[in-house]
Amino acid sequence: MQPVEKKNKLAQTNNVIPFIPTGDFYFAKGVESFRKRKFDIALKWLTKAVDAAPDNPLYQCQMSIIYTETGSFHKANQILTNVLQSTGDQYVDCYYLLANNYAHLGLLNDAKKFAVSYLDKEPDGDFSEDAKALLQLIEIDDDFDEDEWELDEEDELLVYQETVFHHLENNEWDKALALLEEMILLFPDHKIAHHEYTFALFFSGRREEAIEKELELFKEDSNSLYSHTNLAVFYYETGYMEEYEKHIRALLNIYPMHEQQKLRIAVTLARTGLYNEAFTRFRMLDKAVVKSHISYYRWYSMTIYHLGEPSKALSIWEEGCRRHQRLSPQEVPWES
Question: Measured between alpha carbons, how far is 260 from 311 in angstroms, rounded to an integer?
Fold first, then answer.
């Protein structure tokens, strides 16, 4: 190459404008992935968009919709509430999105409140027909105080369940116990709360008391899946292997319909070292339902690791860390 030609070539190279992605670029990529139902990828793009332009409420609203699609309704609601607070109610669509999420959670009074707020502010808005349909489905009759009371009670129970679930999934035993004690007083016939109470009691250090209470529940219903899972773990942890074998054998013959119950058995098998059996149960789960459970990632990755696939175990754990930020600072479960 001649010297002049070389100089011209360098000049052309130096005139290349570097591509610097903007929030709009990330947003467009996120929407594209969302339309293809690639929600994990969409969430990554939207996170980048929000990081690039944290004051853009449109990006945050789209992120909330992704969380709604993946069943993370509380995360979605937190984002939408923040948008309303930061924009002074300018993004009215947030009211309908909140109503929809609360309806999915079963919190019907809250769903009604936000649907009505949306229609008050945007009677002919994009979601007006959806909001009206939602109100028709809720079918709350304000003229009947008794019905309202029953609905309020239902909503209160669901709030307790959601909060207790959060504390149990994060091994916050004392916080779970305090709420469960209130819950049992208010809803004494809600049997699962009693089983969750003994579980939290055991791992808070009150082992003998937990076993005694669970045995009382077992006498009332010897077919209870929750008694079998709790007692299997309790006896395994305390070294009473003969008693453990009795309850674990019962679980090996139970194949529930509900995903949360399927997960409970899978986790119990993993907790007690039956990794081959646990792996079979984990493979049978509907991931779309259980991915909101930290215990799914913790014990599935543990199971895979003990079956001799450390790289796959790490991949599952890292996915859990991406979905549940509280996991990120923690050690991988097989080293903790």
Answer: 27
Dihedral (Cα; 312, 229, 106, 287), 10-degree rounding: 20
CATH of the domain at 279: 1.25.40
Answer whether 146's CB lies under 8 Å from 140's CB.
no
Could you tell me if residue 262 is inside a domain? yes
Tell me how far apart the alpha carbons of residues 56 and 105 are, in angstroms, rounded to a whole number: 27
What is the identity of the amino acid at 149?
W
Q: What is the pLDDT of residues 33-82, one digit of tens each?
A: 888 888 888 888 888 888 888 888 888 888 888 888 877 777 788 888 88
**Domain extent at residue 335:** 255-336
* 267-301 exposure pattern, b = at least 16 Cβ within 10 A, e = fewer: bbbbbbebbebbbebbeebeeeebbbbbbbbbbbb
Question: Model's pTM, two decimal places?
Answer: 0.57
